[in-house]
Amino acid sequence: MADPFQMELWKRLTEAPGAPGFEGPVRKIMREYLSSYTDEIVTDNLGSIFGVKRGDENGPRILVAGHMDEVGFMVTRISDKGFISFQTLGGWWGQVLLAQRVQIITEKGPIEGIIGSIPPHTLPDELRSRPMEIKNMFIDIGADSKEEVEKLGVRLGQPIVPVCPFTVLANEKKLMAKAWDNRYGCSLAIELMKELHENGNHPNTIYCGATVQEELSGGRGAKTSAHLSDPDIFLALDASPASDVPGSNDGMGKLGDGLLLRIMDPTLI
Q1: 3-state secondary structure of 210
Q2: One of 15, 23, 70, 214 is an active-site residue; which one?
Q3: Catalytic residue check, 147
Q4: Domain contains 170
Q5: Residue-wise pLDDT tens digits, 79-108
Q6: Is residue 41 in some structural domain?
Q7: Are residues 183 and 54 in the same domain?
């Protein structure tokens, strides 16, 4: 099992809500940890955050970053009977959503609910034989009217994230949680700053932290962070699918077999 520092860090990062554009709770955790290892914290106007470690000012400028946001949803409509429609923030496959527990992040606190799943034998034939479209799904928070939903603090435009507590599985080397993409990258950035703090000098200027809104566009937060830090080199810390499960192609990603290094950036070549 990982050491207690890592376990607490992963639990806090993965359980924090942080849909694209709503990364505040994750940023608060990043600031707390980064501030333990450097006195210089910088942010850009989109909300990306970095700790800075300065070695040789004439040496390379290095940007190291995960991204704080996770795939989520946004409230788009509240029906008269209190059911909540939503749109996706980031890429979702509709087949994994029905009966998923979620929480709506309101100003009064999180409101838990579930994405409704209609029993298949009550559906018309044309709907029973194909996956439910996301536009036809709804969230049930147990309210009976639009007024009751609004009284609870739910408003259009609020973010929604899955409910999946950090859990150690039967094999203690395996952990279950939401948002590994990319709170794991965030944790690596924090651990790098910890290592630099504890092990002295280096010949670089290092900006180390996490960006925002990667799940919406791939590079929105990374672009503003690059303007902020003006790096000579960028090391992106991200999560990749594991391809060692039944039905998956025999890809390179396998749990326990080490990191993956992308050798070509398709946006540049």
Answers
A1: strand
A2: 214
A3: no
A4: no
A5: 999 999 999 999 999 899 999 999 999 999
A6: yes
A7: yes
